[in-house]
Each structure stands twice: as C-alpha cells, then as structure tokens.
Fold Glycosyl hydrolase family 115.
Amino acid sequence: MISFRKVLFSVFCWMIFFVPAISDHFIKHGTNYPLTILYDEADDQPVQIAVMALADDLELLTGIRPLIKTSVEEVSGEAIIIGSLAKGRYIQQLIDLNKITAENVMDLWEVYSIQSIVNPLDQIEKALVIFGSDKRGTAYGVFELSERIGVSPWHWWADVIPEKRKAVEIDQMNFVSKSPSVKYRGIFLNDECWGLNPWATNTWEPEEGNIGPRTYAAIFELLLRLRGNFIWPAMHPCTNAFYKNPENPKTADAYGIVVGSSHAEPMLRNNVDEWDHEKYGQYNFFTNRETVLNYWEERVKESSGFESIYTLGMRGIHDSGMVGAETMQERVDALHDIISQQRELLSKHVNTDPAKVPQAFTTYKEVLDIYDAGMELPEDITLVWPDDNYGYMHRYSDAEQEKRIGGSGVYYHISYWGRPHDYLWISSTHPALIWEEMIKASYFNSNEIWVVNVGDIKPLEYNTSLFLDMAWDTSCFPDGASVRKHFDRWHKNIFGDEAGQKIADVKWNYYDLNFQRRPEFMGWSQTEPTRKVHPTEFNHFQAGDEAQKRIDAFNSLTQKSAEITEMIPERLMDAYYQLVEYPLLGAAYINKKFLYMEKAYYYAAQNRIVANDYALKSKAVYDSIQFLTDYYNNEMAGGKWKNMMYMSPRSLPVFDMPAIPQWTFVTDSHWGIATEGAKDVRRVNEIKGPLYLPSFNNLLHQEFFIDVFLKEDKLLEWKAEVSNDWIVLSHSSGVLTGEKESRQQRIWVSVDWDRVPTDVRANGYIRFSGAERNYTIQIYTNRHNPSIPDKHIFVEANGYISIHAENFNRKHATESFEWGIIDGLSYTGQSVWVNPLLIKEKQFDPELNNPSVLEYDIYTTRGREVEVTIYAIPIHPINQNYGARLGVAINDEVPQIVDHQTYGRSEEWKINVLRNSAVVKTRHEISSAGHHTLKIFALDPGVIIDRITIDCGGLISTYSVLEETIVFDQ
C-alpha cells in the first residue's frame, strides 16, 4: 500500500497518477455499520451542501445513507467530522484539544486537510476529519473524499454510475492540500442555445422555462467537485440574464461560486437581455453617459452582498466594439473615463477601497489594440489575456506586466461561435494544445483568473476537467507527457484500468485526427458571412489515397470502440456513449459524409459505376448522425438529456446533407484501371500515352495503388502479369461482379529489392487483361547508395523530401533557447518547440552568433533550386517583445528569416486556425547531388515545428502529413 504520509506529490497529483490502494481500513460505511457525518449547522452553506452531497455519494455507493448530525452528543462509534476553520465549532474543539493540526491550513486560500483521528471527541472512537481554511477549501476536501471512494465528479453530469458495494472502506489519511495554483478557476457558459438552454428549458427546469437556479445548482456542484470557484453565466439572447431571477445569485452564493461576467458585459450586466433600447436609448457612453452609469450602478448595488469579479471597460452589445468612438485615441480616453467611473461605483457600493474589490479587464478582440495604444490600467485590476478563439493565446504578460498587483489571467476557448467557423458540436480541442498554452500561462504568472468557454458543458467533459485540474495544481503538469498521463488516468478512473486505457488510446487518436481538421471544418467553408461548402483538400489519388487513409483511420477507431463496448458494464454504458461513442462516431460520420461524396464525384468523372454507391454511402452516414443524436437525446439515460445534443448548431452548411446524385454511364468498355499519381482527375478512356506509377526508391518502403473498376454492371474476371519477379502485387487476379462492394478492387504494388538487378535504374511493367481489353502500367526504379551519417537520413523520392520535425539528427542548444519535444501537438504525433519555459526576457542574438539550431541530414539526387516548407503550429508570440520567427538554411548559407506571426483576423490567420498549421516557405540553391544539411534556427521562444517538406520539383499536393522519406541506419 502507498503510505499517504510518504507521498511527495500533492494530494491531487497522487490522485491523477496513482491508483488508490485500499488495505487496512480506518473507518467503514455500510449496511451494518452506517457512518455518522458531524458538522456545525452554523457553518457556511457550501460546507453544508458538501456534507449533503457526501451523504448522497455514500448512499449511491452502498444504498445506505449515513446519519447526519449537528450535535456531538448524538454521535458515537465512527464518524466523519467536517467543518471550516472559521465556523466549524467541532473543528475548533479538535484544534483546542491538540487532536488535529491546522498550521498548514490557517490563513491560506482554499486549502484543506484530511486527518484520521482516534478518540477525537467524547463517544467517537475514530473520525476522519475534513476541514478547510475557508468554505470552499472545506468543500473541496469533502469532494476529494468522494472521488477517493469512487464517485466521479462527473457522476451526474456524465452518468458515471459507481459500482454498488456492501461497504465503503476509508483508509487512514493524513495530508494537507496546497493552495491552488490559480486563484479564480472557472467556466463560461456560452453559445448555449442548442444544448444547455433547450435542455434546461424543456427537460430539467421547465418550471423556469429557461436556465435557472436548479440548472445553476447542478453546474455549481460540478464546479465544486472539479475544484472550480468561478463562473461567467450564460448570456446569449435565448437565456435570461443571470440576475433576472434573484434566486440565481443566491444559489451561487450558497455554493460559494464567485460570479463574473464575460468580456462584453461590464459590471455584471447582461446587455443582450437587459439593455432595453426603447427604455434606455443607445448603449453609447459618449451620448448617453448618465443612463449607462445608472444602468451599471443598479447592478453594483444589487450584487454588493455577493462574491463577484467585476468586468471593467466597455464594448458594444453582444461581442461588438464600443459605439461612439471614431479614433483610437478616443477609445483610449473613453476607457480611462469609463473605468474611473466604474471604480467610483464600486467604491460607493462595495468597498471604499476599490483595490480590494476583485476586478478584471479582458483584452478581447479590438480591446487588445486599445490597450496597446497606450491605455493605462490601474495596477490592482486583473489583466485577462484571451486566446484567438481557437486555442492559441494572443500573448502573455511581459516582465513589467507580471509585477502588476492585480496580476493577470486567461480567457480560453474549447468551444466557439464565430469567424472563420464555429466549433460548437463535439469536443475537438487537443488536450496537448490546452496543456501547451496553459503551462505557458502559468510560467508567465497569469495565475489570478482562468476561465474557459465550455459552450454547453456536455460535449466537453474531459477538456473541462483538464483545464480546471491544471488551474488547481499546475505543478502536476511539468511536461507534455504529463497531460497524456492525466488523460489516461481520467479514463481509467471512470472505466477501469483495462478498458480505460483502451478508451484513452482511442480518444487520443480521435483528438489527433481532429487536430488535423475539426469535424465542423470538414466543409472547407466559413461563416460570418456564411459561405457554401467546398471540396476538401484531402487527395484521393496520391499519397496512397490520402482521403481513404483518413476514412480508414476513423474506421479503425470506431471498430476498436465497438470492441471496447463489450468490456463496459451496463451501469457505465450511458457514460460510454456520451464520453466516447457519440463524439467518435459523430466525427467519423461527418468526415465520411464529405469524403465519400467527393469520391462519388471523382469516380463519376472516371466512369466508375461505384460512384453511385459512394453517394449513397454519404447519405447513409448522414442518417447515422441523426440516429446517434436521437439516441443521445431520447434513449440515453432514460431521456435525462433530452434536448441537450444538437447535430447542427446554427444550421451551418457543413451539417447539411448535399443533394444525392445518381449517374448513368455511357462508355465504350465495361472496365478500366486508374493508377496512383495522376495529377488530376481524368477519364481513363481519354488517357493518351503509357500508364505508370510513381518511381520506387530502394531506400524507402513504398507501395502504390492501381484500381480496377467497372464502367458497366457486368461480370469481370481480370488478371495481372508482371514483367519481372521483383514487382510484387497484393492481388494478381480477381472478379468484379457488379454487386455492391464488388465494383472495384484496389491492388497494391511494391518492389522486392533483393531481386532487383543492381543497375542504377531497373524498369518493368504490369499487364492487366480481361474481357478483351489490356492495360500496361510501367514500373520505374531508382537505386541509391548514400552513406548514412549519424542515425538516419532523409532522402529525395519522386522529387520531394518529407521530414517529421521531431526526427532531427542533431540539436544545438544555447543558454537562451532549448529545443524540446511535445507529444500529441502535431499532425505527426510529436512536434518540436523552442521551449519558452526556460527563458525570460532573453533576446536571441539577431546576428545568429552561437545559434540554437536543429539539423536534418538530407540526400538529393541532383543539384537544383528547392523550396523548403515549414509547417508550424500557429501560436502567437509570447508577448509584444517577440515574434514567431525561425531561421532556415541549407548547409552553410546565410539563414533566411521567416515569421508566421499573424495580425487580427487576417485571411492567413483564418486558414491557419482552420487547419491548425502555419506555413512558411524559403527557396534555396543546392549545387549538387548528395548529402546536405537542413538547419532550422531558433529565433523566438514558443515557436513549434510540426513537419517539413522540401520540394525538389515533384512535391505532391496533400492536406495532411506526407509519409517521411526517412532511412534509418539498420
């Protein structure tokens, strides 16, 4: 058993990375020995709520509800004693009797302790004592115990039903938590009109007819279980303003949740619902000053008795720019005046010293430009840095900003409505991206407020947990590997070790595929303004049929998911459906909807009768999404989540089913072939000249495809003969019947290099025959014999070189910059970054003296001009002192400096965030064939390289990653 006294990690890290071990129990709850929970009825409401929740949890596990007492005279035997230091009188008694120690808890923020005590008070033989430095700390300690005994924080919100037991055995404990890494940790309910609001309105809280106190109570309990303490309430036009129902703020206060308001809603006002144009006039501080100030003052007075963080500043109604200012200087001056007036209101109604009132200023969208234009912000106001809505932080504090009394914070998105395209449907933000951006926030001391846009909550369960877990104790996440450990443990805690690990493997690959392209972006369309869908950029005829590889990847995951289902107990089937099956199948089906329809059109252009089948396949997977969603809403968990899931938020074109074409083909023969490598889609019967495959290279493991297909619904018996025994076919004969799934066949061609003559270039052919028709495909080979330095070398093949950035040959670090590897944040599985966690305020030498550099050994077949393309993760500069620069050189040439920094909502930025990739190019002259060295120089911290291609004249067009042209020294 792991000794709690000897664990060196914090309690929370222990819970993430280790399986709790139960041996000699300290106290026990069950049928014959019900525990008693003792607390002080005068303690804060969050403590009382946590007590009742723990009783519910113990009853959920055993079927037996513990006794709940507020008088020690009514307690004997074994008990759990709960209370806060300030108001828990039994806790104070234990301190006075020297039964518990509180030095490590006293006067700290949200700290808790759990201690096992023998004979703590009269008649009590054993007690597990849970106490906190404050009301929330106490509640967190209670929910820590709940999770330890097997009740997931998501037990209600994701139907993670724990296994029933005759008894719960609680081991001896003696530890103290740390104070949280981030002071205010919370969520923003947003874009809720397709899930949370209709569910609350029609299913959960119909008496309110909207999101009301019953819904918020469920959300606030979830926040406490996740160690959160902060919320920006829902604020879209479909939702009533939070303060419209006075029970909402009272409920927040009861749960100890601090209430703020979003970047567009100063002074806790919901402008969309509360600013009445007929009553108030224009929301314009320049022309309607007194009315605006009175409007804010009403809310300040109303909220003064509650814990709040007041958003300062002013924007327009519902995420729009300030009205009335014509120039940047007018905006700066106006915000100075506005914030001064807002602080006067706080001084008047909340605290005479406004510096003691929590306040935030969020530099979202155009506000960042105003701030940069010379705006002066009082030092005690927390400066909240936003991301760009797609998970990439615009910036972090520089050295001077880190010194601010009010500190700084983060506003982050894992769900978004807006340009260039929404992603509101299912979870698609890679956990590795959340880690990479939030660990930088922690490093640059943005630790006052972290708030994450979770949309409707339900599709984003894991990502919400990760964000709040990092906010609670960032030290548990020291490197990129730690987020994968957290990911695995989260799923194991719900589904058990064996099934949980298999699920984690599947879900991680799911996020990898979604990182390449989110499901909602598969229409290659944009919104605001909304535009029609376009063909994807996945190549169907090169790179081994890139589109089919993506289909196959999703098919593999869905097959594994189906196999895992057999391992899931009945009590967890609903949890499995919403946490795994629905998002995975939904992503797979929307991908296949587009890729199948593209194949239908491309194959129709080649007179393949299978085109009609692919069009019907596209319709079938669309229907499957409808079926999945109907089950989610109406069958899963007995209809508990009816109206929560919507398969087409905002009804954008990407979610539509395109018209289903059915072609009639007229052709001069009833079959044909198509080879990999065609540069465009062409009718096979119009091909002039010989057919051929891309050439084979002895340094690489290559295979290329040939499709045999029917043009008419007739039986075909075909065979293939090779000119040389070194040409290897996956199939040398076959039968196409015209039945569905038997209208075409793919043959893979490879080379057995042990049999190829030692000539530099050996050629051959494949002859296909059947039904009085023959086709001949030429086969070309190239043999190279370069020496392989160091570990490996990247070789030219068919006119290009493909490199995965993490597979460098050498790296040279400096005091200023160190290259490191990140797992998961890439198209390739890993990426390389200029580690920003090792640098502060150190500028790299612009003359490139003593550089930090990655080196890649490459081999080209001849001298020529080449184009190097670097695919980087589209991060923004760390702060205004840096860019997103790299230096690129081949051999000893002077490095070319490139910068993928984008500005505002430029077209480049839109493309970058839709593909999670920033592309920069350089051109270089290579003098001769043979060995060369590609060098990548670090110029700015935080830059992340995913992959690299070198176009030597034959680079093929693909969307995702090309297979590496790498030779390892074996």
Remarks:
- The domain at 671-782 is CATH 2.60.40.10 (Immunoglobulin-like).
